[in-house]
Amino acid sequence: MLRTFKYLKPYIIPILFIFIFVGTRAFLDLQLPRIMGEVFDEAVSGKESSIIKSEIIKLGIQMLGITLLSIVVTIVSGFLESRVSAKYAKKLRDEVYTKIQSFSLDELDELTVSSLITRTTNDIQQVQQTVNMLLRMVVLMPFIATGAIIMALTKEPTLSIILVVSVSTLLILIAFVFIVTMPKFGIIQKLVDKLNLVTRENLKGLKVVRAYDMESYQEEKTNKVADDNRKLNIFVNRIFTLMWPGASLIMGLTSVGLAYFAIKFGFIETSSKFTPGDLSALIQYSNRTIMSFMMLTMILIAIPRASISAKRIMQVLDKPLVIYDKKDALVIEDVKGQVEFKNVSFKYPSAEENILTNINFVAQPNKVTAFIGSTGSGKSTLINLIPRLYDTTEGSVLIDGINVKDIKLSSLYEKIGYVPQQGILFKGTIESNIGFSSQSTDESIIKSAHIAQAKDFIENTQDGYQTEIAQGGKNVSGGQRQRLSIARALAKNAKIMIFDDSFSALDYKTDQNLRKALKENLNVTTLIVAQRINTIKDADQIIVLDKGQIVGIGKHDDLLKNCPIYLEIAQSQLSSEELAYAK
Ligand SMILES: Nc1ncnc2c1ncn2[C@@H]1O[C@H](COP(=O)(O)OP(=O)(O)OP(=O)(O)O)[C@@H](O)[C@H]1O
Ligand SMILES: [Mg+2]
Predict the structure, then answer these.
(1) What does the alpha-carbon distance between residue 399 and residue 408 come to, in Å, rounded to a whole number?
(2) Where in or outside the cell is it found (predicted)?
C-alpha cells in the first residue's frame, strides 16, 4: 500500500493544504463544547434574565459562526480530497494500463485477462476510496482525540480518569473485533475473485450452458461460491454491528459516570472552579474522544483491505517485461521482407515440452509461404514468433537477416500485417476498424476492402463504411468479420503479411478470389496458415508441420509425391480426380 503512495507525490501541496484545513476543522470543532459549557454556566449564573439572554445570544452567535466556518473548511478540503484521490487513481490506472499494453502473451497468460480487468477497475477503486478516507481522517481523528483529551484534563484531571477507563475498554473491544474479523477479509477477497471467475465463465459460455442444458449445474456452482461469500460477509458485518452499540454504551456510561462522580464528590458545589458547564463540556469531549477512536478503527480496518488491492496492483506494475526493446534496438527502414527461421525451438513457459523443434526455412519477398498441418501442430505458435508475441526459446527469427530481438518493437510492428486466427473487431465503424493502423490511408482502406472481398458486403449495408460495428463485431457474420480483419491488415501497407487461418470462414469462391486479388495487388512477403489444401496449393512454398517439426517443404506437386503427411491431408480433402490431376 505504502508503495502506491509514490503516485501521491505530485500532489504534495494540495495534500498539505488538506492537512491544514482538516487541522483547522478539528480546532473549530473542539471549541463548541467549551462554548456550550459557558452557555450552561450563564443559564445557572443567577444574573438578571435580560443579561443572561443577551450573553447566551452572543455565545449562540459565536457557535453559529464557528459551525459555518467549519462547514466551509470541510467543503473546501472535501473538494481537494476527492480531487487528489481521483487524480492519484487515474495516475495508477494509467500506469497499470500502459504496463499491460506492453505485456507479451506470456504475462497475459500468467496473470489472466479477467484478473487484470479486476485489477484495473475494482482494486484501484478500493485503494482510491481508502486514500480519500485517509487524507481526511488520518489528521482529523488523532487531532480531535488528543485535543479532546487535553481539554478534558485541563478541565478536571481527576474526573478524566473515567475517560481513560472508558477509552481502554473501547480499545479492548476494538482489539477483539480486529482479531476476529481480520483473517476473514483475506478469504472474502479470494471468494470475490472466485465469484467473478464463475460469473464470467457463465456469461461467456451462456450458449454452451444452454445447449447442454447445464443451467442448474452451473447455478449450483455459482450458488456455492456466492453462499460462502454471503455467510462470511454476514458474520463480519454482525461483529461490526455489535461494535457501534458497544461504543454507544461506553459513551453513555462515561457520561453518566462523569455526572455521577462530579456530583458525588462534590466537584460542582465545593469547587468554584468546576461548574455545571464544565461538566457538560467534559462529557462532550469524552464523547468526541470515543467517536474518534471508533473512526480510527474504521480506517484501520479499511487499510488491510486496500493493501490487498494495492498488492495486486503492484504485482502488475512490478512484473518484469519478457519482451522489451533492447537499449540499442534498431529502427529498420526499407525492408525487403525476407523472413528466416534459424534452428528455432519454442516452449511455452507453462509447458514442459517443446511445441516447436528445430524449425528452419526462409520466406522470400514477393512469394507466398504456406503452412499446413493437423490441429495443434504448432502453426499459430510459429507465426506468433515473427511479431514477437512470444520470443523463441532457442534459435532466431530474422527479418532481412536481422534478429527480430534486435529490432525496435515499434519498427518491427510497423513492418508486419497480422490477421489473427480469431477475427477481432472493435466497437466503432467499418471504416475505423479497417483504418485501425495509423499507417492506413483513406485510399488504402478502400483498396484493402476491395482485395479482402469485403467491398460488396460493405456497400450493401445501409451506411457503407460508416456502418456501426458492435462490441466484438457481434453484428457481422463470422466470414464478414474475417474479411474485415484481413482488410485491416492490408490497409496497413506492411511489408510482411501474416494470415493465421484467416480464410477458414470464407466460402470456396471468396477464398479463391481473395487469394487471386492478394497475388495481383501485393508485393509483400506473404505467410499463410491454412487448413484447406485448396487455399495453399498455389503457394510458392508449402511447409508441412507435424508435432512441431517440419516434415516437408516444397510445392504442392512435390509434396504429394514426397511427403506422406501432406498426401494424407490432401487425400482427406481432395477428390481423386483432383489428386490424379496434380500427379
Ligand atoms: N498459451 C499457451 N500456453 C501453453 N500451451 C499452448 C498455448 N497455446 C498453444 N499451446 C499448445 O501448443 C500447441 C500448438 O498450438 P497452436 O495454436 O500453435 O496449434 P495450431 O497448429 O495453430 O492449431 P490450429 O490448427 O488448431 O489452430 C498445442 O498443443 C497447444 O496446446
Ligand atoms: Mg492455430
Answers:
(1) 12
(2) Cell membrane
Nearest residue to 381 via CA among 420, 340, 423: 420
| Residue (of 519, 524, 569) closest to 543 by Cα position | 569
Q: Which residues fall within 8 angstroms of residue 105, CB to CB, at 6 or more apart?
A: 384, 389, 390
What class, spelled out in words, does domain 2-318 have in CATH? mainly alpha
For residue 51, is pLDDT > 70? yes
Which ligand neighbours the alpha carbon of 530 most closely?
Answer: 1
* Residue 452, helix vs strand vs coil: coil
The whole-angstrom distance between residue 165's C-alpha and the CA centroid of its chain comes to 47
376 lines ligand 1 (CB under 6 A): yes
What is the average pLDDT score of the chain?
87
Strands (E), 391-487: 394-399, 402-403, 416-419, 428-429, 468-469
Q: In this structure, are residues 433 and 476 in contact, taking their beta carbons and an 8 Å threshold?
A: no
Whose alpha carbon is nearest atom 4 of ligand 1? 348
pLDDT in tens, 259-292: 888 888 777 665 557 788 888 888 888 888 888 8
Judge if the beta carbon of residue 379 lies within 6 A of ligand 1.
yes
Helix axes 124-155, 12-43, angle to 10 degrees: 40
Using alpha carbons only, what angle is made at residue 480 by residues 479 and 485, rounded to the nearest 5 degrees?
A: 100
- Protein residue closest via CA to atom 6 of ligand 1: 348
Q: How remote is the CA of residue 114 from the centroid of ligand 1, in Å?
A: 21
Domain range summary for the chain, segments of one domain joined by +: 2-318, 339-582
Q: Which amino acid is at 508?
A: Y
- Structural contact between residues 160 and 153, judged by C-beta atoms closer than 8 angstroms: yes
Other beta carbons within 10 angstroms of residue 76's beta carbon come to: 15
Pairwise CA distance, residues 416 & 157, whole Å? 80
Look at residue 581 in the predicted model and tell me its pLDDT.
Answer: 59
To test the pocket of ligand 1, the residue of 347, 354, 379 to mutate (highest count of ligand atoms within 8 Å of its CB) is: 379
Tell me the per-residue pLDDT of 217-265, one tens digit each, with 9 for 90 and over.
Answer: 888 888 888 898 899 889 888 888 888 888 889 989 988 988 888 888 7
Give the whole-number percent of the chain exceeding pLDDT 70: 98
Rounded to the nearest whole angstrom, what is the distance from the C-alpha of residue 345 to the centroid of ligand 1?
Answer: 14
Quick one: cell of 62? 459565536
pLDDT of residue 186: 73
Identify whether the C-beta of residue 476 lies closer than 8 Å to the C-beta of residue 454.
Answer: no
| Cβ of residue 374 lying under 6 Å from some atom of ligand 1 | no
Which residue type occupies 377? S
CATH number for the 339-582 domain, one of 3.40.50.410, 3.10.290.10, 3.50.50.60, 3.40.50.300?
3.40.50.300
Instruction: Give yes or no for residue 531 having a pLDDT over 80.
Output: yes
54-79 per-position pLDDT tens digit: 888 999 999 999 999 999 999 999 99
| Best probe residue, ligand 1, of 377, 384, 504, 545 (max atoms within 8 Å of C-beta) | 377
Ligand 1 within 6 A of CB of 101: no
